[in-house]
């Protein structure tokens, strides 16, 4: 079993942070909270430690990892010549749910980047995460602390359900604040390219960078420049379908077939006999915070099919819609 360290998210206990940091320095793995989701941390400059992350998650080796740092000065160690616009972007939004793709320095192992010449970097806005990175004294890779392809964890119990016994330490720092992963912007292209919508609305980024290229689904053998681009992600065990318009007919049809049906709705008042209905909220901040927990709860309750209303729009809605579509494999 993995060791669990319960750490105060507002005032992390130094001795517990020290224990986790020493595990990182020894080449071990530590799951820890960020403001977005829980991440599985390891020394980003240690290829053997990085292999443990891929093994624990069952993650494809060509799926790049995000490197987490605690100080802007740490960029100098791993990124080459960030542009002036890049500096303006990180000055405005770091720490926070923004990952920026830069050209990498040779010190960054190819296992981190999927063999690419770029590296994705962010500075988390979480006291436990920042304390751990600083104490470890090295940048950390920290993909979501779940089995590859499954809904991301927003609580320590989610991490334990997927990875207990596969990682050295799980830090319990309470529920994450945002609930979906960071936004990823590639600053090596002109104009910049949005690789993954997430916890920071792209409209806010464009106030600093000007217009950015919008994402497109990536398939086949093309190299992924960001996590979440190439493979089915955030997916529950049950088949998931997004239905435009009235979901009642599809729900009732599946109930008649003897299926256990789960429904995700963003409007109160749905009543469909024989269905397990979960209201995710109406405001984007609420939906983002609840979404992965709802998907995981359906797994625990053994539903056969999940039917979700769409959640389209700009701002944070874009990231939520992306997670729903990828969970449905569309």
Describe the structure.
- The protein has 330 residues and is an alpha/beta fold.
- The chain folds into 2 domains: 3-209, DHBP synthase (Alpha-Beta Complex), CATH 3.90.870.10; 239-327, Threonylcarbamoyl-AMP synthase, C-terminal domain (Rossmann fold), CATH 3.40.50.11030.
- The chain is built from 11 helices and 15 strands.
- It has helices spanning 14-25, 47-57, 75-78, 84-93, 110-113, 127-136, 156-163, 202-209, 248-256, 284-300, 316-327; strands at residues 3-6, 30-33, 38-43, 66-68, 79-80, 98-104, 118-122, 140-141, 169-172, 183-186, 193-196, 239-242, 261-265, 275-279, 305-308.
- The radius of gyration is 19 Å and the shape is globular.
- The model is unreliable at 217-222 (pLDDT under 50).
Strand content: 15-25%
Structural class, please?
Answer: alpha/beta
General shape: globular
Distance between the termini: 36 Å
Number of strands: 15
* Poorly predicted spans: 217-222
Q: Any idea of the CATH class of the largest domain?
A: Alpha Beta
Number of structural units classed as domains? 2
Could you say what the CATH architecture of the largest domain is? Alpha-Beta Complex
* Helicity range: 25-40%
Q: Could you give a short account of the major beta sheet?
A: 11 strands, mixed
H/E order of the elements?
A: EHEEHEHEHEHEHEHEEEHEHEEHEH
CATH topology of the largest domain: DHBP synthase
Q: What do the pLDDT scores average to?
A: 93
- How many helix segments? 11
Radius of gyration, rounded?
Answer: 19 Å
CATH superfamily of the largest domain: DHBP synthase
